[in-house]
Design a protein that fits this description.
With about 650 residues, the protein is α/β, with parallel strands linked by helices. The chain has 22 helices and eleven strands.
């Protein structure tokens, strides 16, 4: 039987913790062996933090009444023996709800009032610590299923407001009256009480980095652009839920086309769930007829959405939850929930492990190369010292004094060459400041300012697409300009490193230039995910000042994250080059000190020469052992092991890494 998503995520968590432990042990060994420079140490800390704290987001998206919350209950919370997320007929989850865990906060449910939509701030801004007072906080007891479920029912709370208030909040459209909610006898409109909900609870899966995003229906999604521009696109998997009894409705298709599918995106992270197949379990039909009907609905849904049939998975969330609670294996298989959990786990976690493993491999490769260069420099220095000292055999004190004078002169010449290194660093710092200026907040504000100005123009904005395209062309141009600057720095590093290698026998090698093409591609994905807002269907909505402001804020938040990530990549590369140079300068200075000490000892004692040669030979043996150990320990991190390690295997790895 396939492992459930919970079991697979537990295994994924164990794999990440094991890797994080190994990285920490390796860093300790490198530090003790004096092989850990500043850049490599920072990279190792980043990798360890990434392994320990990396989040995995699964977004559940559907129109109202598709069984979205029930599916979350069945997959993640059946262990409570009851429903935790509100799931009943009609509308339940009325606001976007994120379930995760942050140890910096006490377990609680935090709710952002819907009235904050009237203020010109993004969700990202509202989530800042300085805005905590605006959230309503509800304490929770994670060990009490009843009180936890009661607290979660708050995400289903609503208010009744006037049509004008509903229009201002984004829940009433004069242009699309068919999508408007029904007014009550007093002419009031039902709207969510809360704009966003954050559940912080130490659930085993959430503690390991799982984040669950439960979204409301079409109207709520469209009224909060930040959801579709930021949160949903960044999810590692999106589960789109349909009703088996209805198939793909018009509103389902609108959500799929407008918010989940973008041009050029293969949609491999999208899983379509045909829920409520139990509504097709007809006692008057044979099992084969029921299966054929379910299969027909799956194929029709796949054709309508334009996805392969295997990406449409039939399931009964309600029967799956019931089966788990009652431990009914037959009903659980009939619900087809295990197949969905297996597909979700294998696809989502498999891709996540691949990404993390690639990050580790790249970091370990850089670390191994840098440590090997340091060992090579030390080995060459020892060999030169041995040859130098062997040439003193049988020489008188005058020759020895001359050798000391020569070494001191070499040392003085070496220190004098530091002016070239200082010049390199000065130019490098200047070019990096240019990079930060191009990708910084001031430049971004100017680039988005042109789009914001176009959006604020009164009336119908028929030429907005051109301004939008020009804005993204400028943003991509910024990254290409930065790429050209890094190429200039790289050429300068190559030239200076070659000269230093030739003059001083260094083993400097400029680190690989950062490739910003992935960030350029990410801007393209953001552009596509935003593009549907500029279509003919939104012409009248774009005339609304509040909607345009939300659009620009959501876009700015996402693009800022891309620019900051690109700057971090450039900064890491620059630090790596500087740290490599610092490490070899440090080794060379040590070498001068050791050479002078050796000559002094030979001058002071007749037997000092042979004693020093024996010490050098012993140090060469230690360097060889260090290099072998380096290859062994880094090999433990780059070997293609199974996702989980047994206790015995983990203990063996720990012992291997701890032995210096």
């Amino acid at each position: 039987m396939s492992a459930s998503f919970n079991q697979q995520f537990d295994q994924h968590g164990a794999w990440r913790r094991n890797f994080a432990h190994r990285l920490k042990w390796l860093a300790s060994w490198l530090r003790e062996s004096d092989l850990l420079d500043a850049a490599v140490g920072e990279r190792l800390r980043e990798l360890e933090a990434q392994m320990r704290t990396s989040k995995v987001m699964v977004a559940f998206v559907a129109e109202f009444s598709r069984g979205k919350s029930e599916l979350i209950n069945a997959i993640f919370f059946a262990g409570y023996g009851r429903r935790i997320m509100p799931a009943s007929a009609g509308r339940t989850t009325m606001c976007p709800t994120e379930l995760g865990y942050d140890a910096a906060f006490l377990p609680c449910l935090r709710l952002l009032p819907i009235a904050t939509r009237l203020e010109a701030h993004s969700l990202t801004w509202w989530r800042g610590r300085e805005q905590e007072a605006r959230w309503t906080e509800v304490p929770i007891d994670v060990d009490d299923a009843e009180s936890l479920a009661t607290a979660m029912h708050k995400v289903a709370e609503v208010d009744w407001v006037s049509v004008d208030e509903a229009r201002a909040l984004g829940f009433w459209s004069d242009e699309h009256p068919q999508d408007n909610p029904v007014c009550d006898a007093q002419g009031r409109v039902e709207v969510p009480r809360w704009r966003h909900a954050l559940l912080n609870m130490p659930h085993p899966l959430l503690e390991q980095g799982l984040v669950i995003l439960d979204t409301p229906g079409l109207n709520a999604i469209g009224a909060e652009p930040e959801l579709t521009v930021s949160l949903i696109p960044q999810a590692h998997a999106v589960v789109f839920i349909l009703g088996a009894d209805t198939g793909v409705t018009r509103s389902d298709l609108a959500i799929w086309r407008e918010h989940l599918v973008t041009e050029g995106d293969p949609g491999e992270t999208r899983i379509v769930v045909l829920n409520k197949i139990d509504t097709l379990w007809d006692t008057l039909s044979a099992p084969g007829q029921i299966d054929a009907q379910i299969e027909r609905q799956c194929r029709t849904s796949a054709d309508t959405l334009g996805v392969p049939r295997e990406r449409v998975m039939p399931v009964s969330a309600q029967k799956g939850l019931q089966a788990k609670i009652e431990r009914d294996a037959a009903l659980q298989q009939a619900s087809r929930l295990p197949a969905l959990e297996a597909a979700l786990g294998e696809g989502l976690l498999g891709r996540r492990e691949t990404m993390l493993r690639l990050a580790v491999d790249a970091g370990i490769a850089a670390l191994r190369a840098e440590a090997a260069r340091l060992l090579q420099v030390r080995q060459r220095d020892l060999s030169e010292q041995a040859l130098e000292l062997q040439g003193l055999r049988g020489k008188n004190s005058t020759v020895i004094r001359h050798m000391r004078a020569r070494i001191e002169q070499e040392q003085a010449d070496f220190e004098a060459s530091n002016t070239r290194i200082l010049a390199l660093r000065s130019v490098q710092a200047k070019l990096l400041r240019e990079v930060y200026a191009v990708l910084g907040s001031t430049a971004l504000k100017a680039d988005l300012g042109r789009l914001a100005a176009a959006l604020r123009r009164p009336g119908i904005k028929l030429s907005l697409g051109k301004v939008y395209g020009a804005t993204f062309d400028a943003l991509r141009g910024n990254l290409r300009e930065v790429q050209a600057t890094t190429a200039e720095i790289q050429a300068m590093l190559h030239a200076t490193f070659r000269q230093l290698n030739a003059e001083h026998g260094f083993a400097l090698q400029a680190p690989a230039e950062p490739d910003l093409s992935d960030f350029v591609a990410e801007l393209g994905r953001i552009e596509q995910s935003h593009l549907h807002y500029l279509g003919v269907g939104n012409v009248l909505k774009l005339a609304q000042h509040d909607f345009c402001d939300k659009l620009v804020r959501a876009l700015g938040s996402r693009v800022r994250a891309v620019n900051e990530a690109a700057m971090a990549e450039v900064e890491r590369w620059s630090k790596s080059a500087g740290a490599q140079l610092d490490a070899q300068l440090k080794e060379r200075r040590r070498n001068f000190v050791r050479r002078i000490e050796s000559v002094e000892r030979i001058q002071q004692a007749a037997g000092g020469l042979e004693e020093r040669l024996a010490e050098i030979h012993a140090h060469e043996g230690q360097l060889k052992a260090l290099n072998e150990r380096l290859q062994e320990l880094t090999g433990l991190l780059t070997s293609q092991e199974p996702p989980t390690a047994s206790a015995a295997g983990e203990a063996a790895a720990r012992d291997a890494l701890r032995v210096a």
